[in-house]
Please model this.
Amino acid sequence: GGGVVAYADSSRPEEASGPPQQQDAPRKKKVVVLGTGWGGTSFLKNLDCSRYDVKVISPRNYFAFTPLLPSVTCGTVEARSIVEPIRKMFEKKKKDVSYYEAECFKIDATKKAVHCRSAVGTNLDGNGDFEVDYDYLVVALGATVNTFNTPGVMEHCYFLKEVEDAQKIRKSVLDCFEKASLPNISEEEKRKILHFVVIGGGPTGVEFTAELHDFLVEDLVKIYPAIQEFVKITIIQSGEHILNTFDERIATFAETKFQRDGIEVNTGFRVTKVADDSITVKSKSSGGEILVPYGMAVWSAGIGTRPVITDFMNQVGQAKRRVLATNEWLRVRECDGVYAIGDCASISQRKIMDDISSIFKVADKDNSGTVTLKEISDILEDICIRYPQVELYMKSMHMRGIADLIGSAVGDAHKESMVVDIEEFKKALSHVDSQVKTVPATAQVASQQGYYLADCFNKMDHCKEHPEGPLRLSRSGGDHHNFRPFRYKHLGQFAPLGGEQAAAELPGDWVSMGHSTQWLWYSVYASKQVSWRTRVLVVFDWTRRFIFGRDSSR
Ligand code: FAD
Ligand code: MG
Ligand code: MG
Ligand code: MG
Ligand code: MG
Model:
């Protein structure tokens, strides 16, 4: 059944016809990768670099294992143990790749070139700018911090995004303790200096808070016994709960644990201004404002778009969007040869209602204007691959199969001999698109996308077309399975909460909290030698052992 290709193709933007193929020596296609974070390195690790002329551009010549960044802030883990030099990675994997330590400041989609500025200094002309052209561009630039234009945040807050940030935080925490230990400092002043405020109750903010608390109670109070009574940690979260992307049980567990630890959790408050020595906080319910004196503040309230991406979005007609959109094959919409993965992009899932007529036509093989249940079943798998929301919808409505879905439109009595026309077909599927899910901005997503995209590139010759095509959704087209749209596999998430406790949410609605979860977390992140893939495998193995053990709760 190649029939489905017809609507799958027509739903994608037209490919611009590429440059004419050279007759004699076909040169290797140039692949340029921007960024050496989770997305970029995962792509490079899996790419068959002998097939392409590969150039990598990033201002940081190393990969950083971000999940352990919060541990670096308090010296639990050394900065150098969580980074891997990018050149070493290429050498180890015997990859023939060029690396330029530079920042890309402009993507020129028309010329198919990127403009870069050297990060290590300028050349003899006093100009460190250069241009690199590409056939295929992989944009994996990640995100930047988002201050939501809150006044004073840039000047006064610390961030936790890069390795340097974590080191700065560590230094600043210690500075506060030394400052508060100086003579002639009033108690009030000590309280202010030793008030640590974390703005943003997402995983990063919570994890940092937990690290900081452990650092204070386990180490600093022993070194600074005279001032321990003045230390305070506060989290300010605009939402109703901290960790609101996690299961409710985890949010509650975290809040309770923090309260027991003496950490103040202020939910429902928004920071409106940060000054030199106070933070203005506004209650979302009453609208009242409070001034909070502080010694040090860490802002982890959200991520934003890098200027180079914003500029690129303007070029490709995405000026009105908040995030760079790709199709389900990770290709930037309306743009030839450009792919985007990780935090800098988001997949915009095709709506089934936009294609409903063509899908109906494919199902209606005899062109009779009606389709049978069997005819729909025949292409259901293809539909579910192209439109994952169909399965999600049926699951959310507790439907056991397509008969239930169609039955919802024509009535259960007619289920057996069901024959539907286009209007009924539309009706049955009309609510499905409400289940379109966006993938989160996580390392898990970025690395899976990098892996997927490299797979597509490795098989591109084989396929002659672009990585996303030709889409062969028929069951027989086994070796084309890689050109199925990207599909994210959620492997669960961890939230270390300090005091040797952690919470984990694992696939299949398993939630676990407590000491053994912390142990699980350690086991996952302990070995820096293993790759992300093996880490994931470790999670799975431990998970299985863990969920059948006595500490699990459902
Ligand atoms: P990044 O990994 O941010 O990589 C971007 C790359 O682009 C970097 O190499 C950067 O140097 C480079 N770059 C930037 N600007 C330019 C430019 N102009 N030109 C060229 N290169 C440029 N996710 C999880 O799944 N689990 C976790 O436990 C977890 N913990 C986290 C903890 C912290 C403290 C943080 C900050 C993030 C955490 N994340 C976690 C999120 C995860 O780190 C991101 O989702 C992930 O890094 C996204 O990958 P990326 O490749 O899109 O971007
Ligand atoms: Mg990257
Ligand atoms: Mg990274
Ligand atoms: Mg993304
Ligand atoms: Mg028919």
